[in-house]
Amino acid sequence: MSNTTRPGRNDAPICELLMNLPPLTALTEVVVDGIPFAVTSFININSDTNLAYFLSTVGTTLIVDCDSLSQVSF
Description:
The chain is mainly beta. It is built from one helix and six strands; from the N terminus they run αββββββ. It has a single domain, classed as SH3 type barrels.
């Protein structure tokens, strides 16, 4: 983890975890601002925008600001 903060990048533990997960890692749920969302997989995280992408159980893409994530369930 870096001590230097870059715009658009969060060094929070969940964001760091996502930065190191391979695309299409199977997940079951993410919690965003206290609201659970059922997902099937992690797609990617953009370190420049701090946006994380997940595939929902209904086949749509869930796009979340990594700062808003409080839980990721495998």
